[in-house]
Amino acid sequence: MAKKAVASLQTGSKRLTKAIKMVKSPKTGAYTFVEAIMDPSKVNDFLKK
User: Fold this and answer.
1) Quick check: helix, strand or coil at residue 19?
2) In 3-state terms, what secondary structure has residue 42?
3) Closest CA to 34 of 21, 44, 18
4) In terms of Cα–Cα distance, which of 13, 6, 35 is closest to 22?
5) Which residues pair with 20 in a beta bridge?
6) pLDDT tens for residues 7-48?
7) Residue 26: C-alpha distances to residues 29, 33, 44, 49 (Å)
């Protein structure tokens, strides 16, 4: 069942982009990764934040 749901999401959302950025924590100084799935036009705004 899970494979069927994933396949339908892939065919229905051809114009989505997964963006990953590294963010440094102010408390510990460690880096974490923030992931988001969005329209390709919003990727630059996400990376500038």
Assistant:
1) strand
2) helix
3) 21
4) 35
5) 35
6) 444 555 567 888 889 999 899 999 999 888 888 888 888 888
7) 6, 14, 23, 15
For residues 49 and 42, is the Cβ–Cβ distance under 8 A? no
Show the DSSP H helices in the chain as ranges: 2-12, 43-48
Residue type for position 1:
M
Answer for the pair 20, 34: CB distance below 8 angstroms, yes or no: yes
pTM over 0.90: no
Half-sphere exposure of 16 (CA within 13 A, CB side): 11
Q: Which two tokens stand for residue 14?
A: 């051809």
